[in-house]
User: Fold these one by one.
Assistant:
Number 1:
Amino acid sequence: MHMRRTRSLLGALVGTIAAVALAGCSQGAPAGGTSASAAPAASASEAPAATRSAPPEFASGEVNIALVRQLSSGDYFEQWLAGAEAEAKALNVKLNVSSGDGNNDKQALNLEQAVNQKADAIIVDHGFADTIQPAIKKAADAGIPLVAFDVDPGTPDAVVIGQDDHQIAGKALEVLKADTGGNAEVVYVYVAGFAPLDRRNETWEQFKKDNPGIKQVAQIGVVNNSTASAVADQAKAALQANPNVTAIFAPYDEFAKGAVLAVKELGLTGKVKVYGADISTADIAVMTEEGSPWVATVATDPSNVGRVAVRAAALLVAKEPVDKALNVPPALITQQALRDGKIANVEQLVAAIPELTTPDVARVPWAAAS
Ligand code: SR1
């Protein structure tokens, strides 16, 4: 009974979210930027079933996959890990998780440890090329299958997963351009060295060349265990020094949350808007609260990306074919669409935008699609 009511609510949300593109247009955003569709998400019972039985090492639970992370704090990384752990459980795989907690040397040591422990496959999640590539090479030389997410592995041996960062930046910037008419002083939040941020930066640099009315008046940014509050302090200083700013481009949700805090604390809501990246239930609350300056974000479902990474690693262990480059495409999510759809959490968002789940990316033939 409760399930039926939930599903009909989701059906209504799907109808509403079909207006996501239109909602984007009402803010001046181009409709084509949104990958929302009117098709309802497949329920678990409709998910395609396994087509054959699991290889013996999976059936017996002997497969060890190491997940070697650069960062672990923040909504994005927590959701990503939850997805990876859920997929590991579904595939009966042991997932050994380590994090450098922002210390790149520690991440490299963790990777070397996974090589020494003879992991059956290794997933490298973020990392700086100069510190992590030598350790990745050791893994490749040892014949360990590799999956790399948001890091340049420096070897053609690894399967590389990406979220199309150029689209993430480009779709958010289309909304910024439409909202500002292409004329604005902008604060930009960026830290070099993180592969996804570097790719988003390429799009920002090109965008500024193509739109001479967009002026970057300040660049700020920090990535640490309290990114949002550190960015908030920097954003406050940048806004106070540049009173004509009307937009902040903050293409990482911790950046965007910091930008929102700054705008609110300075009483600039209504004047300065924030264009971000990523999504979480906490982000949805920030975006939809009354007077929120965060008007658009472009995001994947991070837990889905974590699932894809574990599936890719499992396929490599089983010597099954898997594409060398796997793309998990992002969707434009506007504040207006979230409000119109009464979307309050990621579960509702994923139900409303089924494309946020990608069961066919690195599909495992012996498991039900997830
Ligand atoms: C510090 S790098 C942060 C980014 O990594 C992932 O790609 C997320 O999208 C996040 O924006």
Number 2:
Amino acid sequence: GAVDEMTETLIRRRQSLLGPAYRLFYERPIHMVRGEGPWLFDASGERYLDAYNNVVSVGHCHPHIVDAIARQAAVLNTHTRYLGDSILDYAERILATMPDALGNIMFTCTGSEANDLALRVARHCTDRKGVIVTQLAYHGVTQAVSEVSPSLGFGGERPPHVRTIAAPDTYRLEGDIAELLAAQTRQAVAELEAAGYGVAALMCDTIFSSDGVFTTRGLLSGAAAAVQAAGGLYIADEVQAGFGRTGENMWGFARHGVTPDIVTMGKPMGNGHPVAAAIMRPELLAQFGERARYFNTFGGNTVSCAAAAATLDVIEQEGLPANADKVGAYFRQRLQTLMTRHDCIGDVRGAGLFLGLELVSARDGKIPNATLASRVVNGMRDKRILISTTGIHGNVLKIRPPLIWQQEHVDMFVDSLDSLLKDLAR
Ligand code: PMP
């Protein structure tokens, strides 16, 4: 399908000004001009149902957050070298959602910086360098975290201090997957020790977003315990899974039953305002702080703290984890019903409002169908519903709507997908 002239002009301007490293969504890119709740609006006024953007987790342009940002910006915006109470009030609130052992928080601007800091602390405290991650993990953009991001090709080739364990593919792998990951972790620890690096940490996205969205409880329990038993740290990357996304609990790591040493978070923390953090055991920070200093100019600034606090207000006041559970369960059930009509749906999985839908050539044999997945993403876009794909085979629909979704949004999504799959099968 062609795009209009205005869009064409924007695409050309963008390429000439921003260069080639950025990617656009969809064969027919969209020029967005406004957002409201679960909706986005393009330049011609068309309305899109956002089923993908997990940053604006409590809805686009939520008035309570917009208001908090605007008010604070009009009064003071400064950094962590002055005393302030809003950062401490927020710290108390967020730490209260964590296991007791995790008693300190440090603020950054992005998830990448939070993971970068987590790795620095882990390496400092263990005096080791090795890191274990899952097969297609993504942990961010800095040099250090791109090296532990196989989905970026490790920012080059796999560095010698990095080892991977399998993506916990609950659809294709047989047997006890948690035990498989534990065994692979023990093997990786042995290799890192033999190579002279030792193991500093296992870093894991607790819902395996880029590995393909795997939501079975306990998948990480053995691996996390194994790395801790070897004297390494378990770093739970909650950038995707955190803040009620997975439903009944605020944090994805709760599904795996092991308390992390460090928890990192970002994306939905300020509902679109850049604020992120690393939460950790105070003993670790005491050790790190003895020698290292850390000042992040914008991390934890006054406006960011206002945005983060307002986001937490909305999550609590609107009961969004419970809503994610309720609407997510309904969503999965409706998608599972679609399986009876469409043989190309191999698997539907999810926790709260983070769903993965596996598209296959035929259900027998579970052969991944990335071409179909890409057609579905673009076809849904043309029906003005926004999603994308993920996973090792690129065939998993990644569905992460705002946590404010209601049944009517699910119905709109499922009915559109149903009719699209019918058309594509023709
Ligand atoms: N970890 C995970 C699991 C992520 O999904 C992302 C962002 N996609 C990051 C870390 C990096 O966060 P940021 O883009 O804010 O640096």
Number 3:
Amino acid sequence: MFTKILIANRGEIACRIIKTARKLGILTVAVYSDADANSLHVNMADEAIYLGPSPSRESYLLGDKVIAAAVKTGAQAIHPGYGFLSENADFCRKCEQENIIFIGPPVSAIEAMGSKSAAKNIMEAANVPLVPGYHGDDQSEAVIKKAADDMGYPVLLKATAGGGGKGMRQVWNEADFSEGFAAAKREAKSSFGDDTMLVEKYLTQPRHVEIQVFCDNHDNAVYLFERDCSVQRRHQKVIEEAPAFGMSEALRQQMGESAIKSAKAIGYQGAGTVEFLLDSDGSFYFMEMNTRLQVEHPVTELITGQDLVEWQLRVAANEKLPKSQEQLRIHGHAFEARIYAEDTNNDFLPATGKLSFLQPPTESRHVRVDTGVRQGDEVSVFYDPMIAKLIVWDENRDKALQRLAKALSEYRISGVTTNIDFLYNLATCPAFINENIDTGFIETHHDQIFHSDAQ
Ligand code: ADP
């Protein structure tokens, strides 16, 4: 096992990784920008190296500086967390060149999944089911439109380089295709510098169900079951749960085995997530594979009793997976709500300011709070305005959901506008309790979720 690792991230995920490293007796090196000089992750780590000014481009995204910090401090491995450099193939390659272990998959796997269309080609060859569509090299409007016409509307245009819900556009009928196509390409170009598009059948009421997989360097692969992340706003996750409600054992196994097939098709190692759309008739389709630890990994940890960061460290250190498929079991039900500094009454505009009062619910075996801030800290304009992840567990879905509502009602934050009331309204919405959920949930239940006198 390593004796020292560097964590190339900030906020809650940096703190989360430090906790596990400490448990395993591994020393930690934090990195930080100007805005984070006094932040919790710097405080928790054994050492800290300054990277540069506050904007990520001048600090957390500077791969060479991060690697130099690892070399200087004698860290043997780098954990990239999520976001920033976590899915950057060049960074991963440079780590290899400097003999520093990148705690994640091999460069080839990051590259293979970096483009949505290349990923689809690989999955098609591996017999993993895909949403019907076109993801070819011929990018002429006529060819892509013909594919859309042939499969029938509505369709979804996606930027092959896309991510974070950006560069996607629904087209509802043939007459609107040209306009939608031009707009999607413009957005893709400005967001990703690449306007290559693919087109898919737009499923109108799917669920987003993703499978957590893990592979080691000794040919072992397991799935740690599924997470339902259907509750989304602008294609971004808001509340996640595990396991997915209403899953039969047969479907769980089928999706799990498909996910492992996907991972094996690209020689995967470490933690990965295979995202599927699940249609109401039980058919499921590969969407993409995320080659990193995900924000919502704690719900999987709570239902399996495993520490996924520990698994990542062990696999990166060439150990075997801690458990076999037969040894893994689902126990109870977990939810995660993402607590954000944002104004839900004003188009979810990010909020900034000083957390003048901060009192999370008391942690217990039922309630976990993953955060990177303390009372008095500043939520700045420079980074994602997530304040914390609230994760709850209980023996079944109903009880876990009651825990979530209670914990949300106990969360006290002053100084910064948050989405806590919005999350509470979601958690107590009858349709949510009754499992009447698909990816359009927030839009369809707008009036119930946005009523103001919930608490
Ligand atoms: P990104 O990489 O930007 O996160 P994804 O391909 O993962 O994009 O899709 C994000 C979300 O968009 C999904 O969780 C789902 O809600 C919606 N979505 C994606 N593809 C389709 C589709 N073909 N039909 C309906 N909804 C879709």
Number 4:
Amino acid sequence: MRTVTCAAPVNIAVIKYWGKRDERLILPVNDSISFTLSLDEMYSKTTVSISPTFTEDKFWLNGKEESLENPRIQNCLKEIRRRASKRKLEGSDEDVLNWHVHICSANNFPTAAGLASSAAGYACLVYALGQVYGVEGDLSSIARQGSGSACRSVHGGLVRWYKGEMEDGTDSFARPIAPANHFPNLRVIICVANDGRKKTGSTEGMRRTVQTSRLMQYRIRESVGLRIDSMMQAIKEKNWSAFCDLTIADSNEMHAVCQDSFPPCIYMSDTSHAVASLVHQYNEIQISKGNLNNKVCYTFDAGPNACLFVPGAVANEMLSLLLRTFPPSSPPNADNFIRGMKPQTLS
Ligand code: PMV
């Protein structure tokens, strides 16, 4: 029997992946850039065991047995076994490929609530499978086939997912572009406005946007590529102010194309907009004082929860501002739950 347990943190996109050009292989319409958070707070933990005594493959998610028929898990499993069998042909491993697998996975934060649970989950699953079957090399393109954004959680720090040009997806993978401390002493605050499952999953939301939104065509052809270039430049120059402006602009564009789809996909709530407007007010004060390095930025995934990137120097101030503006009820619940954390290097 072989058993491996590992943990993978969530990643938060600052230039969003939104829209697929190939749904089966999960190939995106644009490059994206993200920050992988630390393992201190929001992470997935997965244990993978293989044994000659297991009689079937089995899967548990958050303590509940689930079907392994899920095509995305199957894609990851198939690809790992395919790569492992290649190694075996090279004569490097014992015969484990016919053993059944048991997978036990759990998130320590709400699943499918627009908090990047699938990114952490699939990155963790693929990494654990890779370890158990002795598969080496790039795992990001396998994690991508579980959930697109998962390919970025395989690496730590700032990560870019290259959309690639090939039809078979072999050049669609993630690579680290800068370490987690690139912007020193950075803090991340996650404001959970609602931790329920989202109404429109990202797969359906992306499909609808690509099929019906004209604004999405503008994003693909004219906007997001230039923003990727500007973000790479901002990162290279450590230009925090530009990083903030680009992050905010890309989140707003993603939610604009969602709203422009038919019927519209609405992910942000009144609370989300109130958090965004608080950040803009705060930034105006910092700009008027000439403190561009104290700017804060927000980004929203396919849900109402805000992710704020906050310089350490103003993190306490921002946190108390948030707590005063959105006072926690007593006892704290998911509607007022704010988590602070910092990005970390993983790989
Ligand atoms: O990987 P998915 O299918 O969960 O899509 C995630 C999409 C966003 O989180 C909204 C954006 C991103 O780049 O992570």
